[in-house]
Amino acid sequence: MAAADTHEHDVLIVGAGGAGLRAAIEASAAGVSVGVVCKSLLGKAHTVMAEGGIAAALANVDDRDGWQVHFADTMRGGQYLNDWRMAELHAKEAPARVRELEAWGALFDRTKDGRILQRNFGGHKYPRLAHVGDRTGLEMIRTLQDRGVHRGITFYMECTVLKLLKHGDRVTGAFGYDRERGRFHLFKAKAVVLATGGIGRAFRITSNSWEYTGDGHALAYEAGAELKDMEFVQFHPTGMIWPPSVRGILVTEAVRGEGGILVNNQGRRFMFDDIPELYRTQTADSEEEGWRYTQGDKSARRPPELLTRDHLARCIVREIKEGRGSPHGGVYLDISWIRERLPHAEEHIKKKLPSMYHQFKQLADIDITKEPMEIGPTTHYMMGGVLVDADTQMSTVPGLFAAGECAAGLHGANRLGGNSLSDLLVFGQRAGQYAAQFANEYGGAPVDPDEVEAIERAALAPFARDGGENPYQIHHELQDRMQDLVGIVRTEREMTQALEGLHELRARAGRVHVAGNREYNTGWHTALDLGHMFSVSEAITRAALERKESRGAHFREDFPRKDDAFGQFNLVVRKKADQTMDIVRRPIPEMPAELQRVIKEQS
Amino acid sequence: MSTTFQIWRGDKGSGAFKEYQTDVAEGMVVLDAVLQIQAEQAFDLAVRWNCKAGKCGSCSAEVNGQPRLMCMTRMNQLPAGEAVTIEPMRAFPHIRDLVTDVSWNFAVKKRITPFTPRPPDAPDGTWRIAQEDVDRVQEFRKCIECFLCQDVCHVLRDHRLHDRFVGPRFLIYAAALEMHPLDNENRIADLREAGGIGYCNITKCCTKVCPESITITDNGIIPLKERVVDEFYDPVRKLLRVFRS
Ligand SMILES: Cc1cc2nc3c(=O)[nH]c(=O)nc-3n(C[C@H](O)[C@H](O)[C@H](O)COP(=O)(O)OP(=O)(O)OC[C@H]3O[C@@H](n4cnc5c(N)ncnc54)[C@H](O)[C@@H]3O)c2cc1C
Ligand code: SF4
Ligand code: SF4
Ligand code: FES
Q: What is the rounded CA–CA span in Å between residue B198 and residue A601?
């Protein structure tokens, strides 16, 4: 084997967001040695950007809440494609995970009697999101990070995993490079947990940072694991659109939770015009009722701005397409109007939404306490991911686990806001526990030196080539294709075109050349990320072609209706022996009678 | 409009400004310009960033000599028509181009006694906390660990006392723990000794550069210094400590 630093751990965790850190803490508590690898510095993962809150049925604000309601809300939001067992575990365990975070030092906003305060969010029947202002993710990641560093966990910061290693069926480690020196690292492990987050960088307009190139999805796929629900990409309805350089940056849903409304260029609150059947009985009849809901009136129903994200994103696209958009191609989101209702509205907004106030003031010269924001949809979250066992989070490859955004199941066809942070805690904990257990039960297995050498060779190829393609250019073209052809509104014709485009781009990516040396060379890193993005983009496109209906985040203009037949299965993506991609329909197992009853009672 | 950028290029301390021209469009921030230069002209330019929204604290650098987050520095806040200089933070070892080795900060944090809560208030294992108490420490908990305050503090930047002084970031980290409504630890003795709080002479440079507008000196460091004085120089307490030991 050539020069690679070798490290050995019982459990290797790839990713240091909420899911990875929670898994690491759990595994180390089980007494095994734990290593965590992450692409950026500690504390910079996506989780730090989460704003709105963590969903958990603590029932501190409304005592009608309970795991049953949370479960039913999650299933309805996911259009019943969710793994019902995961939704059940999540709803039951989230409250304990949030309380535990508090015991580790996280500080949430409080109710009058000193308990954790909860706020309203789209698709949640009762106020359910534990939060601290609009920087909940920072509080969460810092708490986990600070706890993690005192537990003897080894962190490999700014280190990127390129490939998983296998022995027979089993995963036995991972191979990667550090950014600083460009040196290779071989990680031997008895179990590996993927917690790599999302895929947003495959699209042009996104709230995601450079890290979210779908690495975990692709690593698992390449290692022979099955992926699921890849057609479901969440486009968040409210991203910034102006100035162009901030396009895509998220505007938290909490703005709407606090009373923010959506208006078109005629001043019309268009969300009242289109309320889906599934939610009609739960939605306010009048602006008056909607306002009362946001102010905590328990007899009121939610305003239509708090319907699910997929629906909002499509309504916004419709307004823009039909010429009722704002000057820069979005619509208006207005929180300043609450001045009409509240005496100290400006102070209230600054206190409840401090980082939004800051973000618009500094990046767009807009004072959100005085004027409306211009917003439009942005690629935000990946529902699809590694298919895992609900209880243990193990993938279809023994020894390989996945948790958080890179795993599939909890959210089905559409994720509710706030259900991600709780997902990270609940399933991060489970993945850590079962990965440690697996490591103890099965021990280690060897690594194949030839495999390692082949990965090294492939990784260094872009330096040796003189193909002349620029990795950044290929990345931009990939993003354009996905955005324009596999975006919010999809058709067979465009997606077929996208597949052809991907094929051609992949060939060009084989001719990418990078200059300079291996130390902190972003061009090289981009070249290496491309492979992951191609796998993920192809999986999204193929699954989206196969789902000939519209459901949740997946909307087909050529099949605009939901089709019950398609509600009976998930689409599973896997690699065939001949290396091509296979899409299979996997029937959803029948829900136990007890859970069916819960859903009936809650509808 | 085409603008000139002087960007520090080089490895491990050696290096020089290199000049680039790029078009600056409406609303662009410094980080946009840097990434544009990277994508079009300097493919291997090393720079850290993540969120592009001032939330992660990755993109710290010195823009026209001022410690700033590149993603929150609008081009139109800088003098028009003049070249923009961008260099890495100077208080930490240089790695490459705009990237520095900030690992010292992570090591410092590890040495600070972690959060230690009092026993739960309620039988179900939860606590009761007043919103005012949450609000009071909120300011310090907003820290995004950009380390700009560390970069500008003369004790670290000029006197290089990294082994004796934890720096403003970790003074307010300690303050946040000390003011945490549930915490039962006392970190004052540590701050005085290993923390080197005495090295801070309240120049307030750290407060001025904090992108989160944390009043590091007045609300964090000065109250901590007062407690050091109370606990160590107060004659009655001093006596008590002599008796105890
Ligand atoms: C702006 C914004 C606001 C949000 N607000 C909310 C909210 O209010 N509530 C909510 O519930 N959800 C919210 N979300 C979603 C939620 O934040 C994310 O889904 C969640 O944080 C993902 O966590 P994770 O642990 O799965 O991964 P991440 O936090 O994304 O971390 C992934 C980690 O994996 C590492 N990694 C990736 N690839 C590799 C590789 N190849 N090798 C090594 N390491 C790798 C990365 O470096 C990183 O450390 C928001 C998302 C965004 C973008
Ligand atoms: S106030 Fe103290 S900590 Fe802050 S910069 Fe000055 S000397 Fe450093
Ligand atoms: S205190 Fe302010 S300047 Fe210092 S690291 Fe934190 S956010 Fe940055
Ligand atoms: S990129 Fe996150 S603070 Fe600048």
A: 64
Are B93 and B150 members of one domain? Answer: no
Residue-averaged pLDDT of chain A: 95
In a domain, residue B131? The reply is yes
* B116 and B229 fall within a common domain: yes
Alpha-carbon distance values, B75 to A67, A209, B80, B180 (Å): 49, 21, 8, 39
Give the tens place of pLDDT for each residue, A537-585: 999 999 999 999 999 999 999 999 999 999 999 999 999 999 999 999 9
Whether residues A472 and B28 touch (CB distance < 8 A) is answered with: no
Q: Tell whether B108 and B92 lie within a shared domain.
A: no
Its domain, for residue B177, covers: 103-236
Q: How many angstroms separate the CA atoms of B95 and A182, rounded?
A: 12
Under the banding of pLDDT at 50, 70 and 90, the label for residue A1 is: very low
Residues contacting A524, CB < 8 A, separation 6+: A182, A462, A463, A471, A514, A516, A518, B44
User: From the CA of B70, how far away is ligand 4's center (Å)?
Assistant: 7
Q: Do B109 and A146 touch, CB atoms closer than 8 A?
A: yes
Query: What is the per-residue pLDDT for B237?
Result: 64
Backbone region of residue A584 per phi and psi (left: phi > 0; alpha: psi in -120 to 50; beta: other values) = beta
Question: In this structure, is residue B192 part of a structural domain?
Answer: yes
Distance from the alpha carbon of residue B213 to the mean position of ligand 4, in angstroms: 15
Active-site positions of A read 236, 256
For residue A78, give every residue at least 6 positions away whose Cβ sits within 8 Å of its Cβ, in sequence order, or none: A87, A383, A410, A411, A412, A413, A414, A415, A552
Closest Cα to atom 6 of ligand 3: B143
Which of these three, B63, B81, B100, is where a domain ends? Answer: B100
Q: Which domains does chain A have, with CATH numbers?
A: 237-379 (3.90.700.10), 450-577 (1.20.58.100)
For strands A34-37 and A4-14, give the pairing: parallel
Instruction: Collect all residues with Cβ–Cβ distance below 8 Å to A481 and sequence separation of at least 6.
Output: A498, A501, A502, A505, A537
CB of B179 within 6 A of ligand 3: the answer is no
Residues B112 and B127 in one domain: yes
Judge contact between A68 and B86, C-beta under 8 A: no
Q: Give the CATH number of the domain where residue B78 resides.
A: 3.10.20.30
- B121: Cβ contacts below 8 Å, ≥ 6 apart: B127, B128
B50 lies in some domain: yes
How many structural domains is chain B composed of? 2
Tokens of B119: 């026993």
Residue nearest to atom 29 of ligand 1 (CA): A17
> Is residue B118 domain-resident?
yes
